Amino acid sequence: MNQQNYSVILFDGVCNFCNYWVNFILERDKKNIFKFAALQSEKGYELLDKFNLPKGDFDSFILIADNKVFKKSSAAFKIAKHLSGWPKIIIPFSILPHSLTNIIYDFVAKNRYKFFGKKDACRIPTKEEKSKFL
């Protein structure tokens, strides 16, 4: 896998909220910067191993860009920089301490199944989306 050509977003494949954000990013990734893999997938486990990340902690989506790992609000800010439209309005908040922005992130992450529900199996990309998933 060549990290020079694209960045990878690892997400909780059974989380409805996470899948909403995957769709959101897919629609706004006009420069094809991102590819996706469920944290629970074979490719997800391979990348978690490669970057020495835990395999049981799915409370954060993970961005792998330029061979570096970004989690939680840091990942969200990095992703927003590359999306078209209104997501860019969150970028100024990246100057706040990550300990502060991660409080909000952690609250939503810990309650995401309760608030938004959970699927029985990981998301399966459509035929049109297949090239965007690892």
General description of the model:
It is a single chain. Helices cover 37% and strands 13% of the residues. It is built from four helices and four strands. It has helices spanning 16-28, 42-50, 72-80, 98-116, and strands spanning 7-11, 34-38, 62-65, 68-71. The protein has 134 residues and is α+β, with helices and mostly antiparallel strands. It has a four-stranded mixed beta sheet with strand order 2-1-3-4, with helices on both faces. The longest helix is centred in the C-terminal third of the chain and has 19 residues, at 98-116.
N-end to C-end Cα span = 9 Å
Beta-strand portion reads 5-15%
**Using DSSP, what is the number of strands?**
4
Count of helical regions: 4
Mean pLDDT: 87
Quaternary state of the chains: single chain
Q: Helix- and strand-based class?
A: alpha+beta
In short:
The chain is about 35% helix and about 15% strand. By secondary structure, it is of the alpha+beta class. The protein is globular, with a radius of gyration of 14 Å.
